[in-house]
Design a protein that fits this description.
By secondary structure, the protein is an alpha/beta fold. The protein contains 6 helices and 6 strands; from the N terminus they run E-H-E-E-E-H-E-E-H-H-H-H. The chain has a 6-stranded mixed β-sheet. Helix 1 packs parallel to helix 4, helix 1 crosses helix 5 and helix 3 crosses helix 4. The chain is globular.
């Protein structure tokens, strides 16, 4: 059985649920089996929360502790989950949010908010930048992620859809 375990950690109010929901829908379109778990340690803005995924080529009914990809949207995520990282795990983090990180070989710093702004979009679209960066490790192209973003934001108008597609591509390209 081939599995891949993703943990996204961030503060309440940082868009963690948005990134998680985008990925859930796009991953299903890729044909993976999926187990997902949201952990709300804090519903108060600023508290640490996580969204975990276990992708597999066969049905799965439980998550797995070992992390293959950690996405750190806040400064708490890396120290809180470092003990659970697989030896070859990839860590994607926002260097503007995560300070004093002892970066390893597989650490990739992407300033999610800055990338959104560089693309002429509001900082709220930083979650689509993160989704694109994650997708670069999951798929060869953005087709299913783009379909998901379009469906999720279609009711908000073409400018919002186009902005999300643009920043997801920027995250994917990083």
């Amino acid at each position: 059985m081939n599995t891949f375990n993703i943990t996204i950690g961030g503060e309440a109010g940082q868009g963690l649920v948005s990134v998680g929901n985008i990925l859930l829908k796009a991953i299903v379109k890729e044909g993976w089996y999926l187990f997902a778990n949201q952990d709300y340690e804090s519903r108060i803005r600023g508290g640490h929360n996580i969204f975990q995924f276990r992708l597999s080529d066969q049905p799965v009914g439980i998550g797995k502790v070992e992390i293959d990809l950690l996405v750190a949207l806040d400064k708490v995520s890396i120290p809180a989950h470092q003990k659970d990282l697989h030896q070859d795990a990839v860590v994607i983090f926002d260097p503007n949010e995560v300070e004093d990180v002892d970066v390893g070989e597989n650490f990739l710093g992407i300033p999610f908010v800055e990338v959104a702004k560089e693309e002429g979009q509001p900082k709220v679209m930083a979650n689509a930048v993160a989704a694109g960066a994650i997708w670069a490790l999951l798929g060869d192209n953005l087709d299913n992620l783009n379909e998901t973003l379009t469906a999720m934001f279609q009711s908000k108008g073409d400018d919002i859809v186009d902005g999300n597609l643009k920043v997801a591509q920027a995250g994917f390209d990083r």
